[in-house]
Structure formats: structure tokens, C-alpha cells
Amino acid sequence: MGHTSLEKIIALQKNPANIRNLCILAHVDHGDQEYLLNLIDSPGHVDFSSEVSTAVRLCDGAIVVVDAVEGVCPQTQAVLRQAWLENIRPVLVINKIDRLIMELQLTSQEAYTHLQKILGQVNAITGTLFTSKVLEERAEKEKGEEKESETLSGDQVFDWSAGLEEVDDSHLYFSPDQGNVVFASAIDGWGFSIQQFAHIYSQRMGIKAGVLLKTLWGDFYLNAKAKKIMKGAQAKGKKPLFVQFVLDNIWSLYDAVVTRRDREKVEKVVASLGIKVMARDLRHSDPKVLLSAICSQWLPVSQAVLSMVCEKLPSPLDMASERAEKLMSVGARRFDSLPGQTQKLKTAFLQCSSEENAPVIVFVSKMFAVDTKALPQHKPRPLTQEEIVQRRELARQRHADRMAADQTAAETMMESLTVKDSKPEEEEELKEIFIAFARVYSGVVKKGQRVFVLGPKYDPALGLSMVPEGCNASDCVSEVPHLSCCSMESLYLLMGRELEELEEVPAGNVLGIGGLEECVLKSATLSSTPACPPFTPLNFEATPIVRVAVEPKHPSEMPKLVRGMRLLNQADPCAEVLIQETGEHVLVTAGEVHLQRCLDDLRDRFAKIEISASKPIIPFRETVVRPPKVDMVNEELGKQQKVAIIHQVKEPSQGRSSDTLLVDPSGLVTLTTPSRLATVCVRAIPLPQEVTQLLESNSEVIRTLEQINMSLREGKSLDISLRTLEAIAGLKDQLDSLLQGRKWRNAVERIWAFGPRRYGPNILLNNVESYQRPSVWQCLGRGDKTGEAGSQAAVLRDFDNSIISGFLLATLSGPMCEEPLMGVCFCVERWDVQSLAPAQHQESFDEDSISHKALADNEVERSSEISAQTEDMEAGLSQAGRRPEPASADCYGPVSGQLIAAMKEACRHAFQTQPQRLMAAMYTCEIMATAEVLGRVYGVLGKREGRVLHEEMKEGTDMFIIKAVLPVAESFGFADEIRKRTSGLASPQLVFSHWEVISSDPYWVPTTEEEYLHFGEKADSANQALKYMNAVRRRKGLYVEEKIVEHAEKQRTLSKNK
Question: 459: how many CB neighbours lie within 10 A of its CB?
Fold first, then answer.
């Protein structure tokens, strides 16, 4: 292929029709046309799926590589899903086919069946993604039809079809006859598509290439007598054409060259193929060298893959309309709801225009660090002949001087030279600049051009209203939120590791941009027009879950560490850097491999200091469960035992603060503030598991809902998109369907808040009978008059926010080990606040109190007179409560603070009255192993608290696929241990899956005789939940109840034993 000149590449960049953005830059001669390929390689490990996301966003197509032996792996599914979500077209390369011949020793017929199965598996994933999309569109269409049918009268017609029959999906699937599949063995240098063999055999046999193309893959065979291609090879026991014409030739080549080493046959094959093999290769002791020499000329893998890429992958001009709309529709906003000027930009996307008046639209998918020495402007230029002569003379002169001078003088001179020279070198070494990895979607990007940087929350409608018409990025606009300006100081062509400086880059190309490190953190949208919306955020498959605290070996180097972590945060799309309340610098990564790479980068590239990392900080969650029915040895619990177990923690707390805290047997906690001005009654109930999962998966919807409610409370008018309202209504309907039963009656309407951080998987319920507060779902009923009337009647009470703040604090750190709560519902049953009226009215607190109570067992016996008195005064006092009196409405006063603390403590005590459990983060683990090492794999999983879900044998191989779940806490060193125990024959893939309740009670102690027999007097067998809880408490510096020495005996020294 040879090296291509920069001028040729710049010329090719101006023709987007012949550009293919898929993944190292190369110039390819393909027939009469020249193509420019931008090849972006991405790592295959599941921890680095964020790198796949950044690459996929900039591409129009993708090459998906699948192992011929292992078939579809979890990462294959993740890659296909990412390609689908970004609307880019994939092509398939089935690699390592040599392993089917040499390792598995399959016949050509068996290999054909095996390859068919792999294609079926890959197509099944694509089919699933396609089906889910069609069904979603169908559901949306039905919603619209339902609304129309409500207005029309007459008989209803039901359509039971799913809509899949009408849609053509044939172009989505991988099929060799479509030309989007290449079979290859990269290690031996060969690869082919069916087109190549169709062309070869059409010339030899006189059959049309089009006919062969359709029949080479499939159930077709050659009838030698009739000289016709016929269908039904499998039924008639005939060899399919693919086996006869393609695989048999490859199998016989391997047999002659590698297995038998038959020199005569090899020479015949070489002569028949018309290729030349060097004598050195023929004599080589390793047969693979000869095989590679033959195959790389007969079926070169590069030619097969590049031909498929040029013919089957789209150019930037072929961008789908759907993809352009998807990129421009941020969050819950629909494309139709965007301003007119913004919608017009869709044509700029589709035309991929490089005209002068075309708007510039660029997306930066990631920032990567480059040493300043690697920049083209700092590269050492080649010396001229005169300069070489001059330098040689200078070197000779220095050598002569050094020899003549005294030895000591020479040493001191050398020292001074090294001291002087080392400083600028050190300074240079520290300099790492960031280059933005980007793609131009429209317009021409020029060196030094100023553009708008659009933040992820930028609203083009607001921007257009605030920016004067005709204003460009050179007139910097500071007052528009989430909009800033920057200058593209330098443009680079990415030639593998090399960078070439460019003056301008037209639309459709991938490039590097220098000078954006101050404006762009990880990814951003750049545009010359404020009408451009920010692109939708990247889809990351891996969730950052593994945390470590990092500190420098020498405390004086802390500033270098802080700077290094800031650079790492910018360079890695998935890593997160936090500073905890304790002052620790925490690094959050996707997994163990990712963590190791981040620490190495920090040590060697960004901070360049010795660092020490803590043991991984494992996240846990705290929850409550329903009272258990059996004890630890599966004996049924009596009612008295249940009560005793539930209230183990309650009794000491009652004795400690009985004057302000009251806990009744039903689990209702009543707590009064120290000033006796406020009382709250709270009960904790476990949420159903489905509800917890729903809240966790819809955290973005809940966050949006909270933002809308906040704006409505502040009196701001909001234009909420239809999609957002549909998502909120959908969440409400799902909650309604899941929260069934007497205790959850009308619970969804009574939701007060979500927590922690206002969007977590815990709920605060308003069970205070006489307090009707505005619903959290009020945005859904804004158009309804009855809803408006209801919302006017429902007014927020003073200190309403204090109750929410107390709940948020309680859910952020639970009582077990200060970890966030999950799946807990706190019901506020009663809430009394004493009125702080002016002095002349403060005759008695009983007369001026606002009492709001629900049905609670301990409050039923109150006298009817007090209740009547409260009811009589309620109307007048509720009006007084609405007036902004300086004392009562002071949200930052002492009552507010005490109420927050009281609510937090009430929630914690209510939590402790229920059976408490820890929740552990779980990985799904997929392991491929041979039958011999299966037992060892199970041994490692069992030792690490893993649980096997299912295992199956991969057909046609001796490999087993084991699917298991493993706690994140036990996963460190798991992959290494598996490899060591199985001698590298098994390799696991770990992906974060879900949170799971640890069944054992951390506070449990043996009480019955059976439990003493089973667990020992002090529960000698380790309580896993207690072990985890104590580890977290110890790390956080909390009190841990454990004995350092137990059953100690007097030590005998060696001297006394003599």
C-alpha cells in the first residue's frame, strides 16, 4: 500500500463520498477510485466499553470481529447494541478460522455448520434490537390512534399484528451473499468474502457470478451430471457449494502445508494458484511461515476487509435522517419541539456540505493527552548537509578541549552543564497537552476559527432569544447559560501515533483539535451558530463502580497528584475523580483492569510521582425487609420470637432518650425536638423489589420531575416536551400497578419526595390526614381545571422542606454503616408544629398549636374535647400559617434546623425497628472453560460467594459457558485466580448488574439450642453481612463492636519450657 503523501490525503478529504469513517488512517486504491479510510481501533475488554462509545459516535460504520471458536461473547452483544443505538451500519469479520482446523480439528462440513450457528447468534442479537424498536414505534402509533378513536364514534376495529410483517429488515442482518461478512484468519494472513470465490469460479465454470453469489452460501449443491446448481443439499446428503468450492480448498492447503508437510503437493498448489513463494519460505522449519506466504498472496485479508468496507459501509453523505434527528434531540426533547432554525440544521447534517456559508458543526467525543514533543511543530527536522558538517566540527573541538583540560575542571564543567540542561527538560516533560478527538459534521473547520461551545444543558431556543441576530462566536456571549466561546488553535490529521498539522478540514472527516483543554472537559458540541443543539450524551455500557482512595508517597507532592487526577479525569471518558468529605481523593473506575490502567497512567504520565492506592472502596446499600418467617436453621419462628428479633436494637435507644423518643410495638417512631416545638411520627416499610428496580432505572425521569416541580414552586413557566410528560406519566402508571394492596392504597398520589439526592430509590409518603400538599405529579394535570383547583387548595406548610431535608439526610447515610439506603418507604403519620405567634397571643401552647395527625395506635386515646378544639381552630390557623410571619416562616431559624435533625433521627430509628439488611453490588460473570477445569472454576466461585445461574455446553466444541453472579466485594483478583487455577483455560468477563440483598442478618446472635449446635456459642462461622458491615465501619472510623482478644491464655515462653 505504501506511504501516502499529506497532499494526497488533504485532496481526498474534500470528497466526502469516498470517505469511510470506521476506525489508523490509510489511503486505498480500490479499482479506479481512491478512498480515504479513518480507522478507529477500540479495546475489546468490557471495562473499556466507554472507548467503544467514543469511537462509535464519530463513525458511520463498524467492523465487528467475532472469534470463530468462542462465538458471541457478552462484549459482542454490547458492541452491537452500541452500534444500533448510534444508528451506524456494522459489517462482520469471523476471525480465527484456523483454530477450527488446527485446534478443534473439525471437518469442512462441521466447520460450515459451526459458522452457520455463529451467524445465527449474531443475527439473533440484531433481530432482538430491531424487534424492540418496531414494537416501541407500534406502541406510540397506537397511543395516537386511541386518542383519535376517542373523538370518532362507531365500531372499533382491533389490529392484532405487531407491525413486524410490514417492515423490511433484510438489510439489517449479516449474510455472506450480501457481502457484509468476511471469513478470516488474521494470524495466517488470509481472509475472503464470497464475492472473491464467485468471481474465480464464474471464470472457470462459465456460471454467472450473480448466480454463484446467491448460491455459494446456503443449502445449494452442484449436480455434476446436469451441471446445474440445485437446492436441498442437506436433505440429499450432498456437500453444500460453500464446503465444496471454498472450505475444502482451505482445508487441503492446511493439510498439505502444516499437517503433512507434503512438499510436492505444496508446489502443485503454488503453481495452480499462480503465485510465487521465495525459496527461503519453502525451506523454513516453521510451516506457518510458508502458509502465511501462500495465503497472503492468494487471499490477502487486507484486500477482503477493505473491499467490504468501501462497498458496504456508508459515506458521510449517506447519513440517515433518523440518526441526524437522534443526535439533535437532547434528553427528553423531541426533534419537532426544537426551534425552526435548529430544525433547518438537519439539512446541513444530511448534505455534509463544505461550502463557505454552511454552518460549522463539530462533535468532540473525547480528549486525549499528547506529549508536547509529539506535536508536529516540535518535531526535529532533518538536518542539511552543511549543518551535519558544522556539528561534526563542533563535536571534534569539544572533544579536543576536554582531553586538554584538567580532569577535575572537566568534571565540574560537566556537572554545571547537566544541572543547567536538566531543568528545561524536566519542565518540558511535565507538559502534556490535550487534543480533542472530533468529527466535522457540517462546514469547513479552519485553524484559529472561533466557535461556540455548547454545554449538555444548553437550550437553543433560549440561546437564540438572548443572542442578537447575526452574532458569531468572535463576539463572545457571556450571559447565555451553558454557552461559551473558544478558538481552535491548531488542527491535526491523526496518522496513527503521528500528527500532521492542517490549515482546514472539510465536513465528513475525523480530526484532532488543539487548544480546547480549558473549554472542554470530556466531550462537547462545537458550532458556529447558537441554533445548534448539544448532541445527545454518549451511551456508556460500563458503570463506574470500583473506588480507591489515592495519595502521594511524599505529602509534599500533593499538588502534583491533584493536577494529575484532573488530567486523568479529562483524558478518560469513564473515570471519575471525587474529593470526599474526609478530604480523600477518590478515583472511580469501571473495573479492576480499568483501575489498574488509570493508576498506571496517573503514576507514569499525568502526576509522574510515586502514589499509594487504598484497597478498593466497596459500595453497599442498606435496606429493610419483611419480618423473617424462619430462623437461621430454617426453624419456624413464633410471634414472640419475631418481635424479639425485630426490636433487638430498639430497647437501648428507648432508655437513652425516652423523654423525646417513643417507639411503639408496631414500629411507629414518635420523636419530639429538644425545644418541644415540633413532633414527627414516622414508620419504615420495605418497598417491593420491582418498585426499587423501577425507581433506580428511572432516576433521570425522577430528576427531571423534581426540576419541573422546583420551577413550578418558584412560579416559573416551563415548556415541557410531550416525550418528557409521557415518560413521567409512564413512571406513575407503573408505580400504580406495582404498589397494590391495602397498605399501598392511593400511595402514588401521596408521594412527598424521593431520596437520596431527590431522585434515589427511596420514597417519603405523606400519611398526615389533614395535610393536603401539592402532588409531585402536578405537571401531569396542568391542563386540567380540576387539577388546577386542587393545586390551589393544596398549599405547602411552613417547614415542609425541613421534613424533606431530614428524609434526604437519613437516606444518604443509614444507621448500619453510613451507606445510602435503598428500597425503603418512610411514612410520616403525624406532624405537629407549635405556632410561634407574637408575645401577646402566647398564653398557652395548647390553644395555639396546629395539630396534624393520622390514624396511629398510640394517639387514638386522646380526649374528644382536644380534638374538637383543634378542629375549630384549624381553619383560622391555616390562614395564619400562610401569612409570611417572620418567626413562623423563617426556614433558616432554630425550629427548621431542629425539625431536620428530628426527622433524620426519626427515620433512622424507624429503620432500626425493622429487620435490617445490607445490599451488595453484584457483577454478572460469564466464563468460558473446558470440561477439565470446570470443577476448579466452581471452586473459585464458591470461595468468593459466587452463585452459578446456569451452564451450557457450546455445541460443536468442548467449551462450557458458565453464567454466575459475584459480589463486587469479592471480585478483586478473581480473574487472575481463575487463570492461575485453570492454567489460562478459563477467562471471565465481569459486568456490573444489580444490587442484591445479603440474606444473613448482621445483628443476629444464636439463641436456640439448634443454633448453638450449628453456629457455635459466638456464631463461629463467619456472618458475611457482619463482616462487610464491620469492614465499612472500620474504614469510616465508626465504632466496631469486636473483641481484640478472646479466651486468652497465659503465654508460655520457650525459656520456661526447657
Answer: 22
pLDDT per position as a tens digit, 288-311: 888 888 888 888 988 889 889 888
What are the DSSP calls for 25-90, one per residue?
EEEEEETTEEEEEE------SGGGHHHHHHHHHH-SEEEEEEETTTBS-HHHHHHHHHHHHTT-EE
Burial degree of 477 (CB within 10 A; 0-12, 13-18, 19+): middle
For 868-922, what is each residue's pLDDT tens digit? Answer: 333 333 333 333 333 333 334 455 667 888 889 999 999 999 999 989 999 999 9
Q: What percent of the chain has pLDDT over 90?
A: 11
Q: What is the dihedral of CA 489, 495, 497, 500, to 10 degrees?
A: -40
At residue 853, the 3 state secondary structure works out as: strand
Cell of 851: 395539630
In sequence order, what are the beta bridge partners of 964?
925, 948
The answer for residues whose C-beta is within 8 angstroms of residue 215's C-beta and 6 or more apart is 229, 241
C-alpha cell, 1001: 442478618
Percent of the chain with pLDDT over 70: 78
Give 981's contacts (C-beta < 8 A, 6+ positions apart): 933, 936, 937, 939, 940
Grid cell, residue 938, equals 466452581
Taking the C-alpha atoms of residue 348 and residue 365, their distance in angstroms, rounded to an integer, is: 20
Q: Residue 266 to residues 103, 158, 248, 288: CA-CA distances in angstroms?
A: 22, 68, 15, 13
Q: Which domains does the chain have, with CATH numbers?
A: 61-137+173-312 (3.90.1430.10), 546-617 (3.30.70.870), 678-781+794-834+894-904 (3.30.230.10), 916-999 (3.30.70.240), 1009-1057 (no CATH)
pLDDT tens readout for residues 985-1029: 777 878 888 899 988 888 877 777 777 776 665 555 667 888 889
Rounded Cα distance, 272 and 882, in Å: 97
Q: Which residue in 515, 613, 531, 524 sits closest to 564, CA to CA?
A: 613
**How are beta strands 483-487 and 445-446 bridged, if at all?**
unpaired
pTM for this predicted structure: 0.73
Q: Which residues pair with 525 in a beta bridge?
A: 363, 454
